[in-house]
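Tutorial, part two.
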Amino acid sequence: FSPGTMPAMRNNPGDIRYAGQKGAIVPAKPNDIATFTSLPLGTTALFRQLWLQVAQGQTVRQIIASWAPAGVDGNNNTAYLQNVIAWTGLPADTPVLDLLPPLVKLN
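Running the prediction step on this input gives:
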C-alpha cells in the first residue's frame, strides 16, 4: 500500500470491488474497484471480506484465486501465492479457519 497508487487514492488497501460496503462510493461502472470515503472504512471492508472468506473455510490458495484470478489483468497468482506463503508462513491448502486458536473461532 504505497502513497500515490490507485488503492491509496481510493482509500482501498485491498483493492476490493464495490459491493455496497459502508463508506464506499457507488462507482460509475458496475463491478468496479471501490472508492471509500476514508482509509479506516476501506481497511474495515478489507478485513470484513477476508474474515468472510476465512469463516467460509477457504484456504490461502482459494482466497488468492478469488482476489487475483489467474490471467485476469495480468495476474500471476502462482507468484502471488508463493509470496503470501513466504510472508505469512501459512500453508496454501489448509483452511485458514483451522489454523486459528479455538477462542478466535468463537468470535
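Strands lie at 24-25, 35-36. In part three we will examine how such features are distributed along the chain.
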